[in-house]
Design a protein that fits this description.
The structure holds 2 protein chains of 2 kinds. Chain A contains 11 helices and 2 strands; from the N terminus they run ααααββααααααα. Chain A is mostly helical. Chain A has a two-stranded antiparallel ribbon. The longest helix of chain B is centred in the middle third of the chain and has 27 residues, at 186-212. In chain B, helix 2 runs antiparallel to helix 11, helix 9 (214-224) packs across helix 11 (236-262) and helix 12 crosses helix 13 (292-310). Chain B has one domain (10-372): ABC transporter involved in vitamin B12 uptake, BtuC. The chains are: A mainly alpha, B mainly alpha. At the A-B interface, helix 4, helix 9 and helix 11 of A face helix 5, helix 6, helix 12, helix 14 and helix 17 of B. Chain B: This is Urea ABC transporter permease subunit UrtC.
């Protein structure tokens, strides 16, 4: 029983990290068909933001909360700059943006290496997040619970925003039918920019959250980006629901297989399972119905 | 080359020139060390030729060629390690990390024939299987790119995790012989270079013949308008699988030659980043041209070797900038710089020499619409409109 609960929680915890990493991707990929390889580096930027903020604000608790806000802005601004300078120019070639943003990722990584140094740095967790909480007889680290709560919060906030705000309506309209949205007077260009800001901002928040799990380095983003992409592929595009289910599912799967084999073998098995899953649902779990031939 | 010559003569003339440079001039003027380095670049160029076929002509953005390169390299390395250990012997690293016994699935690779067959068939078979699974279900575009990348990530993690049988992060290295030839002898190193050069030339010729055939036309058609090809009664999935499999086989052969030439194969050569790095050379050289990927791959590897040693940080910036500038502003690569320039100048796209040529010089349109509906959210009417 204890083993089951702790496995279950390990899976949920991994899933929440994946979800935070993939949420922004789901948004930008869903709307624009753009795969942003620099997304992981936006997370890295968010993590280093937390590191810098902690240098200014000594109190770990206050600095974490401030970092979450500033991390969002840093990630969002980076995304906005990327969208305006490069991605908007390559609108008709979404596959090529993947390579361009990979170039951006390389540059950002090296920049972090030159500014902060190659060795990893640590961000102190606030005292109210140290220790563990006992749930069903299993000790669960408070930092993991915090990340879980943050992921839930991010999902709820984003879905409310998508559902009820004018911007959310515009985003949904653009995802469903870009041409028709444009015809109805929505500036899809402005919507794209805001979506990118929002999605990249979530990456920044994810980066801040990751500082709670361990030390951070220039390659922080690359460790999560591939899994985050897989979440988007499995989840399907256009709705957050898919990303949520996929992130939790993959987290549980990975943790479960890891339990019975090794971590490296689990990665391969998860990949095989994903390919098998795509045989059944090539468009992912949740897809917006279109009249496309695919 | 002069514009008076026909496209056929130009292509084969260029091919002969390349052959003369690789087999005649390079061995004559380069030192043993440089020649060995060039041999390494040629192995990377083999991967690039395959990527040129799959990505440039077939539109499949494969971010996981490192897997097939690595499979070829590791299969060869396993044989070399076993051969070094002698009949019934155990490779040194297994004594170090493992329990000193050779796992059963290693045993067949004591035989040179089995190894060569495995290099030729195993990665190709894996690619065919994966390609069928993915393309038959019409998973494509960015989805395929992500899957191929995830495969590379999983492969590298598996190699690192199973240190007892794969050497872990260190990979496999320290080979003494190559099918009975002593690798410490410079003459045998030269022989390896010649093998690599001939194999690369054969691959380029094979791609040329493939692209001149009906199949080549079909592949480019699938890239540009997959659904239209389907309506004509072909199965686009099969067309793609063939190109993907050939690309995988080329990468595997490149890996198998890379191992003895460089003397090491490790996860650092096969993971996500090296897999994407293969694409830089192809993009720069011109993804849809015949010699572009080869020249691009050799050029980029050469630049990396000469720059990264003295300015490691600068090289990374440079590599990133190359990706950004070339893909964003020169999508067809340097090979088409002349055409872009002529178009700017004269307003007419194709020069006299280009008109007769086929997909051999096929240039991607500035905005291939086919990518657009691949994301799956766009209405077909959108792409149909551009007929």
């Amino acid at each position: 029983m204890d083993a089951l609960v702790s496995q279950l929680f390990a899976g949920l915890s991994l899933g929440s990290v994946l979800l935070l990493a993939a949420l922004g991707l789901a948004l930008t990929f869903g709307q624009m068909g753009v795969i942003n390889m620099a997304h992981g580096e936006f997370m890295m930027a968010g993590a280093y933001t937390a590191f810098v903020v902690q240098g200014v604000i000594a109190d770990a608790g206050v600095s974490l909360l401030v970092s979450l806000v500033i991390g969002f802005l840093v990630g969002g601004l980076l995304g906005l700059i990327l969208e305006v300078t490069l991605i908007s120019r390559m609108y008709t070639r979404p596959l090529d943006t993947l390579l361009v943003t990979f170039g951006v990722a390389l540059v950002l990584q090296q920049l972090a290496r030159d500014v902060f140094g190659a060795p990893n740095v640590d961000v102190r967790a606030p005292s109210w997040l140290s220790g563990a909480v006992e749930i069903l007889g299993v000790g669960i680290p408070k930092t993991r619970l915090f990340i879980l709560a943050l992921a839930v919060l991010a999902v709820v906030a984003l879905s409310l925003a998508l559902r009820f705000t004018p911007l959310g309506r515009r985003i949904r309209a653009t995802v469903q039918n870009r041409d028709l949205a444009e015809t109805s007077g929505i500036s899809t260009r402005a919507t794209d920019r805001l979506t990118f800001f929002l999605g990249s901002g979530v990456a920044g928040v994810a980066g801040v959250a990751l500082t709670l799990l361990g030390s951070i380095g220039p390659t922080l983003g690359t460790n999560y980006i591939v899994d985050a992409f897989l979440v988007v592929v499995v989840g399907g595009i256009g709705q957050l629901k898919g990303a949520v289910i996929a992130a939790v599912g993959l987290g549980l799967l990975q943790a479960g297989i890891e339990y019975s084999t090794t971590a490296s073998l689990a990665k391969v098995l998860v990949f095989v399972i994903i390919v098998a899953f795509l045989q059944v649902r090539p468009q992912g779990l949740v897809s917006v119905r279109t009249r496309s031939l695919a | 080359m002069s514009a008076r010559l026909g496209p056929r003569a130009r292509v084969w003339g260029g091919f002969l020139l390349a052959a003369a440079l690789l087999l005649g001039v390079a061995p004559a003027v380069l030192s043993d060390f440089r020649l060995n380095l060039l041999g390494k670049f040629l192995c990377l160029a083999m991967v690039a030729v395959g990527i040129g076929l799959a990505w440039g002509r077939g539109g499949m953005l494969t971010l996981g060629q490192g897997v097939f390169f690595g499979l070829g390299g590791y299969l060869m390395a396993m044989h070399l390690k076993l051969a070094d250990a002698g009949p019934g012997g155990v490779p040194d690293f297994m004594l170090l990390y493992g329990d000193g016994t050779v796992p059963g699935w290693w045993e067949p690779f004591r035989s040179p024939v089995v190894t060569i067959l495995a290099v030729l068939l195993l990665p190709a078979g894996l690619a065919a299987l994966l390609g069928l699974a993915v393309f038959k279900r019409r998973v494509r575009g960015a989805y395929f790119a992500i899957l191929s990348q995830a495969l590379a990530a999983a492969f590298a993690i598996l190699l690192i995790g199973q240190q007892k049988v794969t050497g872990g992060t260190n990979g496999l290295n320290g080979f003494r012989g190559f099918f009975g030839y002593d690798l410490s002898d410079p003459v045998n190193k030269r022989m390896l270079y010649y093998i690599a050069a001939v194999v690369l030339l054969l691959m380029v010729a094979a791609v040329r013949l493939l692209m001149r055939s009906r199949y080549g036309e079909l592949l480019v058609a699938v890239r540009d308008q997959e659904n239209r090809v389907r309506f004509l009664g072909y199965d686009p999935a099969l067309v793609k699988v063939v190109a993907y499999t050939v690309a995988a086989a080329f990468a595997a052969i490149g890996g198998a030659l890379f191992t003895p030439i460089v003397g090491i194969i490790s996860p650092a050569d096969v993971g996500v980043v090296p897999s994407i790095a293969f694409l830089v050379g192809v993009a720069i050289g011109g993804r849809a041209t015949l010699l572009g990927p080869v020249l691009g791959a050799i050029g980029v590897s050469w630049a990396e070797t000469s720059l990264s040693e003295s300015f490691p940080s600068f090289w990374t910036y440079f590599q990133g900038a190359l990706f950004i500038v070339v893909v964003a502003f020169l999508p067809n690569g340097l090979a088409t710089l002349g055409q872009v320039w002529r178009r700017r100048r004269g307003g007419s796209g194709a020069g006299p020499g280009d008109s007769g040529d086929d997909a051999g010089d096929a240039v991607l349109r500035d905005a291939p619409r086919s990518d657009d509906h691949e994301s799956g959210v766009h209405d077909p009417a959108v792409s149909g409109r551009h007929a």
